[in-house]
Design goal:
Length: about 120
């Protein structure tokens, strides 16, 4: 079983920055993709940013402001969020997919961390 531990959310004023972290633990053999999603009240969960071994992609609304990165040695993914806007307010969820014990695939979600941007 793979567990994800998120940290870094909080309250920040518009224009400020936050850095989210998500560490994966368990019998992980390999990780294919790591990503961040968010869900605002009354809205569906949406992809914010995703990173694989060869590429990154971002939602248009965060391009140029957010940066996703990963530390393979620590099985950790980060989301650096700059120039935050009130519309970035949401619960942010980490998502990691890969393999455990060399043969079984997994797709795990973090518990979510609240990001609130005040105007």
């Amino acid at each position: 079983q793979v567990q994800l531990a998120e940290s870094g959310g909080g309250l920040v004023q518009a224009g400020g920055s936050l850095r989210l972290s998500c560490a994966a633990s368990g019998s992980i053999s390999s990780i294919n993709a790591m990503g961040w999603y968010r869900q605002a009240p009354g809205k569906q969960r949406e992809l914010v940013a995703r990173i694989t071994s060869g590429s990154t992609n971002y939602d248009d609304s965060v391009k140029g402001r957010f940066t996703i990165s990963r530390d393979n040695a620590k099985n950790t993914v980060y989301l650096q969020m700059n120039s935050l806007k009130p519309e970035d307010t949401a619960v942010y969820y980490c998502n990691v997919g890969g393999r455990v014990n060399l043969i079984r695939s997994f797709n795990s979600w973090g518990q979510g961390t609240q990001v609130t941007v005040s105007s």
